[in-house]
Design a protein that fits this description.
- Helix content is 21%, strand content 27%.
- By secondary structure, the chain is α+β, with helices and mostly antiparallel strands.
- The strands form 4 sheets. The chain has a 5-stranded antiparallel β-sheet with strand order 6-7-5-8-11.
- It is globular, with a radius of gyration of 16 Å.
Length: 162
């Protein structure tokens, strides 16, 4: 695992050359460094384990919290789904312009403090959050919005919050 860079720990992925990991500048958060994934749409993934018996309250709190994240620079979309097999588990998928938009923009904002107050007490245990980039399953190299190409993998962050 690489050391921390701008609050993001990069996970080494087998077969991914080190040359794809150097930092570049973020277009979403000027002056902020991000990893090799700069320019790719980022998909945040978190399984949210909600305490037993708290599903209705969690869903109501999430509805109140959604505008907080949706108003953030770099936010694209959000989807919350409930597991059929494990009803106390929810899948949160959030699209961001960059990892930095989530980890530095949202997580360092006053809105995130409100988000935490509304939602974090529902989680048991606390969720692990990962960031993903698109993969072209036809074997072609993915292209970022800036025209960069790479064979994407994912970047994981410490489970400080969703």
């Amino acid at each position: 695992m690489r050391g921390a860079r701008s609050g993001v720990r990069h996970v080494a992925v087998s077969g991914m050359p080190e040359r794809w990991l150097p930092a570049t500048r973020s277009s979403t958060l000027p002056g902020k460094l991000v990893g090799w994934h700069a320019g790719f749409m980022i998909l945040e993934h978190a399984i949210l384990p909600v305490r037993a018996g708290a599903a209705s309250d969690f869903e109501a709190a999430f509805a109140a919290a959604r505008p907080l994240i949706a108003a953030q620079p770099g936010f694209r979309s959000l989807r919350l789904s409930r597991s059929v097999e494990t009803p106390q588990h929810y899948l949160l998928l959030v699209e961001w312009d960059s990892v930095a938009a989530h980890t530095e923009g949202f997580r360092e904002s006053a809105a995130y403090e409100e988000w935490k107050a509304l939602l974090h007490h529902f989680y048991e245990p606390f969720p692990v959050v990962e960031h993903f980039v698109p993969v072209d399953v036809d074997g072609a190299r993915a292209e970022s919005s800036s025209g960069d190409t790479a064979t994407p993998a994912h970047a994981a962050i410490a489970p400080e919050g969703v």
